[in-house]
Amino acid sequence: MSNKCCCNERSHYFDKFDEIMAKYEGKEADLIPILQNIQEAYGYLPQDILDELCNRTGLHPSQVMGVATFYSQFRLKPTGENLIKLCFGTACHVNGAEKVAEALADELKIEVGGTTEDGRFTLETVACLGCCSLAPVMMIGDETYGRLTPDKARKIIRGFYENRGE
Amino acid sequence: MRIGVSNMGKGEYKIIVGLGSCGIAAGGNKVYEAFKEVVGKSDVPVTLDETGCMGMCYKEVLVEVIDPDGKSMIYGEVTPEKANKIFESHVIEGKPVVEWIVKADDMQTSEDSFFNKQMRIVLRRCGAINPESIDEAIAMDAYKAIEKAIKTMTPEQVIEEVLNSGLRGRGGAGFPTGMKWKFARASEGTKKYIVCNADEGDPGAFMDRSVLEGDPHAVIEGMMIAGYAIGADEGYIYARAEYPLAIKRLKIAIKAAEERGLLGKNILGTDFNFKIKIKEGAGAFVCGEETALLASIEGKRGMPRMRPPFPAVKGLFDKPTNINNVETYANVPYIILNGASEFAKYGTEKSKGTKVFALAGKIAKGGLVEVPMGIPLKEIIYDIGGGTSSGKKFKAVQMGGPSGGCIPADLIDTIIDYDSVNQTGAIMGSGGMVVMDEDNCMVDIARFFLTFTQKESCGKCTFCRIGTKRMLEILERITKGEGKEGDIELLEELCENIKKNSLCGLGQTAPNPVLTTLKYFRHEYEAHIRDKKCPAKQCKALIEYKVVEDKCKGCTACSRVCPVKAISGEVKKPHKIDSSICTKCGACMATCKFDAIIVE
Q1: A87 annotated ligand binder
Q2: Which of B241, B360, B586 sits opposite A132 (nearest CB)?
Q3: For the sheet containing B321-325, what is the strand order?
Q4: Does the annotation list A131 as a binding residue?
Q5: Which end of chain B is more exposed for a tag (fewer CB within 10 A), N or C?
């Protein structure tokens, strides 16, 4: 409930959700696309939106939560400003992705899956980004960084922090 | 400047930038922009265009320049700076920049070996057309096969043709496609569905993505032909959400086909109707299994169910459904248009046609390759792939992803067909081929795949849910140097039981990476357990970084790069690594210019 601070904001807060619901009939088969749309609009699946989804569609909360927690794409918590998706596919693994993960975790002072205290980065690993010839690879936002080494990965993060100061 | 080959003027240069996912990841958009800028400033008429994957991922960004007389040259590793030079020299002055050319119509290059043994059926239009232009696809025969099928063939004849071609499912299991269609045709019911499995989840595999990004029309047409054959008027493409570009291009292709009357009602003036919808997956490897995939389209948790009834009898929304994967559908138009025998002339007795592989890992020339069935593994790895990228000894190739196995160097003469690959204990799979050299620890590889399958197990079957967890714990212990006598036997017992008692392919094949590494690299397991050594020197708990005093010049580079300050020593004197502090990150070894740091 932390996402709304007064009644006025509350109504706006649900605007995006209303727009999404207008596109679908709200049947069971629409559940995954609806959740995908919510995540795109809000960055994650906020609990109050999910509650509202159940109210409007009549889908049972256990069904909605069952789906939301089954698929790895969905998150129930907001991410940092920049989402790092470090590829842990086979090609990246054999080319040293684990060492890159350790370097990133150390540089950001977080565990894989965590968000930095300043909220700037969330570090996640993903199964395969599909650009195996550039292994090891990570994506920060929409930008892809390939042929990583632990050192190169640290420098990329430092680059983000330095740029903000400018 | 014109954009798009279909608007092309005669006697002009054409510049085509490869903008598949890996081209974009390597900086393709920046190269495209650089060309756009120089072309825009120049008076010379030039057509600028984009295309999908050309296959040579290791040379991305790729740019094709076609001369006014139609001669093609492909440049590799193009940067925005090189783009300017290519434009100046090749287009303005008419002098190609020979040293950057990787493939040309009338010139030999060092990269020709990458193409010489390939045969392109599925990828026939990938990298040759702009995937966002239906006109370019049509100019290269797209939608001719569906026209032939609905105007001149009965559904039974279509099925017969596919049966005769010997096409088997390219998703991995290799079930005869025509047979599947026959069952779905025979099922009673007026409403039937076609489903395309584009949930390519194997880590290290990107064949289907490249086909969808490079030639979405081939898949759409294949689905339409299947729809006509079984009597379905609606199709779903279930695509991985991680493939945004593939989904975007599919949507463009479907819309273009609808506008041309190629999808919708009364297609090409016949009474055949067909529409296609896209469903985006949400990240669950198990949804590659057909019944889980159907559950996911229906909005449920993607959990497999018992078969029978098979989807051909009771599938999507309980209606008869035919499911094939992307590559299977992409083969179909070629078979219908050119005839079964034209397709069946490639391959072996039981495996016909070609297979697309994503060649990755420690391979010199990684990329997307399509080879005739029956080619020896050796020719793919050495003649096409150029051997290992490290120059070190080739150790094994992993085929079939988490369901597959490792084929060791001794079996490199194995030919590529379903049965020969199965005999090694690996599987053909969807086509991921990850090469490993002597620096890769096979116990670690087994642990890697088990981490994956354990995480992706849907949890329905006890043996898969808990059995893979126990296996992973044992493998983790072994790689940490805490392996015990009896661990190998326990692993084998678990493998057998998980295979036998799991409902779906995920569980039944999850032990394969362990079984094949145990079969071919048992000594590595034993070395970890008994001698507490990792022969490949990869498992951190079993190795130590050391300075070779004779070689160390005392340059201090290692001590500066060490993130935990574990290295000490005076300038110009040999340094020392304190192994109690060392986290074994390897940064020192990567930095040392004198090979003075070794792993033991």
Answers
A1: yes
A2: B360
A3: B275-280, B234-239, B193-198, B321-325
A4: no
A5: C
